[in-house]
Design a protein that fits this description.
Blueprint: E1 4-8, H1 13-24, E2 28-33, E3 44-47, H2 53-59, E4 67-70, H3 79-97, E5 105-109, H4 113-116, H5 119-123, H6 145-160, E6 163-169, E7 172-173, H7 183-197, E8 201-202, H8 207-211, E9 213-214, E10 217-218, H9 219-230, E11 238-242, E12 248-249, H10 250-261, E13 265-266, H11 275-279, H12 283-293, H13 300-303, H14 306-313, H15 324-327, H16 337-350
Parallel strand pairs: 1-2, 1-4, 2-3, 4-5, 5-6, 6-11, 7-10, 8-13
Antiparallel strand pairs: 9-12
């Protein structure tokens, strides 16, 4: 059967990698964004604002996608606003497509805040769940825009008869410029600044994260899981965690990242050193580095999302994810985490985003 994909958030870290995955497997693929870019050869751009229902309907007038992949969100000042805005993104999209009756499957990407609670909850030491995190763990008694987005998908599936899948990655490692949550590029920029200024590559996070077990999600492996779930009967109407499939300790990985850049690694010293505060002083430094090395992005804030890296690395518990639900249904892909970072660093260097 013909597979016509609509990726919502095609310029993001997940959406751009998903576009490459689907195109490589012969899908007709449309990429929707407010300002679409032709990042992938063959991707068909769609310009639309998800908060403008009339404009969205007009942009989708000639499209009849069979599969919809929701990979975007908009950060707001409060969780109440996150719920209002981000549920509307999903609702408006699925309502615009509803009259066409073409959609067979909808995939929604959320994340581990499903288990940990919204940013301010775990950042302020709220109740933390047992790990490894498992899909059957109940929702927390907290406001959470992920829950609101899921509920919009469930309601539309009931109305229109499509299947769905929910995908919950840990920290995403992959290339994107202007992304809200981008640890890999943030650490690459930080390490590059350390090398240029002679500073040590100092661990910014908590003792629990430094010594505890963790995992991450390569943008390429979540792209593979999204394609798999969209075309696998056993994956219908399921929620799936998605990580690389290995675990590591930052105390092991941090020196390896430092060695790649040729900088001195400094581990946990008893104090949290937030990157957001440190990098906020480096805007002019990065601009000078970019000019000296003829880099393509002189704006530090377009590359680094230190606030989100601080939240991840500052958690007071180790965080790892169980992958049993997709494994037992046939998804067996694996990605070595060390290579996720090194592959990203090589790509950033080749694209002249870091020196």
């Amino acid at each position: 059967m013909e597979k016509i994909a609509l990726i919502v958030g095609a310029t993001g870290i997940i959406g751009s990698n998903l576009a490459q995955e689907l195109l490589a497997h012969g899908w007709t693929t449309y990429g929707l964004a407010r300002n679409p870019r032709p990042d992938a050869a063959g991707l068909l751009p769609v310009a639309a604002d998800l908060l403008n229902p009339a404009g969205l309907q007009a942009a989708l007038a000639d499209l009849a996608p069979t599969h919809v992949f929701l990979t975007t969100w908009m950060r707001q000042d409060t969780e109440t606003e996150n719920i209002r805005v981000n549920s509307a993104l999903v609702r408006n999209m699925l309502e615009a497509l509803s009259p066409k009756k073409s959609v067979r499957h909808v995939a929604l990407v959320t994340g581990l805040k499903h288990y940990l609670g919204p940013f301010e909850a775990y950042a302020n030491g709220g109740a933390l769940p047992p790990t490894p995190l498992r899909e059957e763990q109940p929702r927390l008694p907290l406001d959470n825009f992920y829950y609101a987005q899921e509920d919009e998908v469930y309601a539309a599936a009931e109305r229109d008869g499509f299947s769905w899948s929910i995908h919950r990655p840990h920290t995403i490692i992959g290339k994107a410029v202007g992304n809200l949550m981008n640890m890999g590029t943030t650490l690459a920029v930080y390490a590059s600044i350390c090398k240029e200024t002679g500073r040590p590559f100092r661990w910014p996070g908590s003792e629990a994260q430094w010594h505890g077990l963790s995992d991450v999600t390569d943008a390429r492996i979540i792209a593979k899981q999204l394609r798999w779930a969209a075309t696998t009967e056993a994956a219908r109407n399921q929620a799936f965690n998605i990580t690389n499939g290995d675990v590591f300790r930052w105390s092991w990985l941090w020196p390896r990242l430092a060695a790649w850049f040729g900088v001195e690694a400094a581990g946990f010293d008893g104090t949290v050193h937030p990157l957001e505060a440190e990098l906020s002083q480096d805007t002019a430094v990065w601009r000078e580095i970019a000019e000296r090395h003829q880099l393509t992005e002189p704006d530090l804030n377009r590359l680094a999302s230190a606030w989100h890296t601080d939240l991840d690395l500052g958690r007071p518990i180790e965080v790892m994810t169980d992958m049993s639900n997709s494994r037992k249904r046939g998804f067996l892909e694996y990605q070595a985490t060390e290579d996720s970072f090194f592959d990203l660093f090589e790509q950033l260097r080749a694209d002249r985003l870091i020196p």
